[in-house]
Amino acid sequence: MGSSYLFTTERLGFRTWQNFDLDDFAAINADPEVMHFFQKPYTREETQAMMDRMQRLYEERGHCYFAVDLLETKELIGTIGLGWKTFESDFTPCVDIGWRIGKKWWNQGLTSEGAKACLDFAQQLKIKEVYSYATGTNLASVQVMKKIGMNFCYEFDYSELKDYPQLRQCTLYKVVL
């Protein structure tokens, strides 16, 4: 299995999505705590659609929100990776970095470790700048952005969350590679 990783860190392996990931990723996406800063938990079908989108994005651009395994146990911990955002804003279209990992793996430094590796991967792809954003109250994600060397840009109203006033105000970070 190890040889199928696109890149690794000390503890994590990054790869494209496989059909066998659906059960584990659907469980993570269905957890209300994990999805607290999203519109709602995802159904199994929505998780499958996201995996399919990520696979297409990888084929088109050479990056996506990757499937991430804990190397020690080969468990899927969630996703960390590089997306492509085209919604209406001052900073799009752009490459963004994002993450979503299961509760079991929170507060172990795995997200920061993985996100740093994704920025290195972005550099190899000759990507010049990477953005990240989160709902302003998502302090854990903002902390990761700071930890991996991103700089605060500004706050903005995220157009795709206009029907979710408690989530709409987002904080934007950026790093130049």
TrEMBL record:
Keywords, comma-separated and alphabetical: Acyltransferase, Transferase
MF (Gene Ontology): acyltransferase activity
EC number: 2.3.-.-
Domain called N-acetyltransferase: residue spans: 12-165
Gene3D superfamilies, alphabetized: 3.40.630.30
InterPro entries in the cross-refs: Acyl_CoA_acyltransferase, GNAT_dom, N-acetyltransferase
Enzyme class: transferase
SUPFAM superfamilies xref list: Acyl-CoA N-acyltransferases (Nat)
PANTHER family from the UniProt entry: GNAT FAMILY, PUTATIVE (AFU_ORTHOLOGUE AFUA_3G00765)-RELATED-RELATED, N-ACETYLTRANSFERASE DOMAIN-CONTAINING PROTEIN
Protein name: GNAT family N-acetyltransferase
